[in-house]
Design brief:
Helix content: under 10%
Distance between the termini: 37 Å
Strand content: over 45%
Number of helices: 1
Structural class: mainly beta
Number of strands: 39
Strand order of the largest sheet: 2-5-39-38-37
Largest sheet: 5 strands, antiparallel
Shape: globular
Length: 419
Amino acid sequence: MNRLLALLFIVPLIYSCRTDKEDDTVRRQVNDEGVVIATPYIWKTSLHEKEPASNSYIKHPIVYNDNIVVPTTDGDAIRTLSLMDSKDGKILWNWNDLFEIGTEYMDIAFHYQYKELLAYQYGSRSYCINMDNGKSEWRIRRDRSFDVRIDPYGQYYFIYAFITNSIGYEEQIAFKCDIQTGNISEFLTANFTYDNPDCVRAVTFVNQVPGQDNLLLVTYAENLPDWITQSYFGLYDTILNEWVWDKMQIAPPKHTNNPYYPPQIVNGKIYAEISNSIVCHDLATGKQLWKRDFTNDFMFSGFIIEDGMLIGNNEDLFAVCLDLEFGNILWQVRTAGTCGSMSYLNGIVYFVGGSTPHLFAIEANTGKIVWKINAALLGEGFGAGFRTNAVYVLPAKDNQPAKVIALSNLYAYCFEAYR
């Protein structure tokens, strides 16, 4: 966790520039391995109106009506969010209605979109933005700090905070928040053992089961002595108010043995990353079906599931693809460490490397790297790189080509998607 927070709060100095159409001086370049390292862009737009300024961060793509929400700064170098037109890169609105303008980071590790509303959590501060007009729907400073993690539940969403319960134990519980009003209520406590009175217990995620509105998959953990953590899955029925099954161990107890990303539920199976492993459990019974161990973790990239494949980027500097049935490795290819989250479009996986800050594109079926675009070759000069901010992908529509939009410290770049 500390590594991720440190990464999110590193903010380089940047310099303003203009919105440009395609620059004829940028030529397609290919390296000795046949990988594209530079390609003309459709447009680029400066993320800043004034110099110097510092970037904020959005981990997962926020797309609304085919336009994208990106971190920017205004003429006073204040951090803002902006809705950017994906057709030409023009800014449609700016939002900076923070409680602590000028000092508060706008780092959105998790968010929830419900119709025109966008909600995110930052410590004790809850924000909800109307994406039609860029105005605050509501904003609330709460009486306690909440986790940045946020999970959807129809008109509601779940956020998580620690309380001291009636018998004196400290534990994290799930609160249900109404996205239209911001009102919250205590919702669910995991089925903890209470065997170790001095240790913290945490509900990690509460995920609604697709197609079964009454069922919630609960991921939770208990800290054991000597900083050892034990994590579990449980399946909870909100109609019967009881556990269908519970305390299914995700991985053997060890240090930092707590999932960071929400599990994904596909075709009756649960997939999750935990420490240095990817696991698969049966949703009906909770039984673990397979577990694949790696030399390092997937903490920064997480993983995606597309076309029957699970794809993530491990901190051992390799992207990897697993089959969903047995967890067998279909391919792995050397990329970069500390990568951003992954996006998928038309058989291609896109993401930005951290240790190697290039825009990667990889064929999902083969693992072949087809792009490793270097921002320094797009006119920014030596030392430039893409940020591990979200990569936005938009399918072809209304005579517009399929697009990939990635951010450097200076610009948003829009490229035609790989074909």
